[in-house]
Amino acid sequence: MIGLPPPETNQAYCEVSPLEAGLVEIPLEWVIDTAQPGERSELPALSFVLRRPGIDELFLFDLGIRKNWEQITPGYAERAKKLTFRISVPQDAVEALARGGTRPADVGTICISHAHFDHVGDPAAFDRATFVVGADTRGLLAQGYPHDPHASLPADLLPAARTRYLDPADWPPLGPFAHALDFHGDGSLYIVDAPGHLPGHVNVLARTSRDGAWVYLAGDSAHDRRLLTGEAGVPEHGVFGCAHRDKEKATEHLGKIRALMLAEPRMRVILAHDRPWWEENRDKDVFWPNKMDSM
């Protein structure tokens, strides 16, 4: 089944508000096979606030880039230089939340899509939240800095007592996806296993109305919308390598997102680095504390 379950009576749903938490300029040859040599693009690092009406506690998907990103580990500074990233953080997730009068203590749950620097932000700033990550993230962090001096992230990135490592193996299917977790148990928000990009990579699928509208937050399932439309493919560049650990699985998962877009007319898909969406909406009242419309 490609389509998603229809809404129930008094269906629970989420109001969704983006946060802009940093910018990263990348070589396009790293992410799409139609890029011209030397072509570059500045991308936002988007995070999202998801709030169920009537419930004050906030759910965050990703934290973007921290202010002091150069100090994460020596290994990440090396990787950023190798990939010729140019990174700036006019505001981080904490500052973006503060624009709406929201403190880190107001956040109950933070789901990190995967353990790359432009998604993990600064977890230490959120000293009350429970962190939710894919189970394979545990192995990546266990090999982190300083155990591996070249590691991109520190081994103690996430608070041990407040982190849930979710294993998707027993999650049931949902639409085109093999494994998805009904996080609140009311059909309002699903965590979707999203293999290919990095071990532990997850996406979030949320209802945005009582009557059948959805948003799919795709994380790094793709870094460019042309991969969603089929106008470009995932490259394996001679210098930059591939943006995904497993290109075949990443491409397969991307095809499932595309199938869902075709099957659900009221489905909005947003990438973590969705430059076209960001350019179209950056000056509109959709960022926190405002919210996106539900389609």
UniProtKB/TrEMBL annotation:
GO terms for molecular function: hydrolase activity; metal ion binding. SUPFAM superfamilies: Metallo-hydrolase/oxidoreductase (SSF56281). It holds the Pfam family Lactamase_B. Keywords: Hydrolase, Metal-binding, Zinc. Its cofactor is Zn(2+). InterPro entries: MBL_superfamily_lactonases (IPR051013), Metallo-B-lactamas (IPR001279), RibonucZ/Hydroxyglut_hydro (IPR036866). Residues 44-273 form the Metallo-beta-lactamase domain. SMART domains: Lactamase_B. Belongs to the metallo-beta-lactamase superfamily. This is Metallo-beta-lactamase domain-containing protein. It comes from Phlebiopsis gigantea (strain 11061_1 CR5-6) (White-rot fungus).
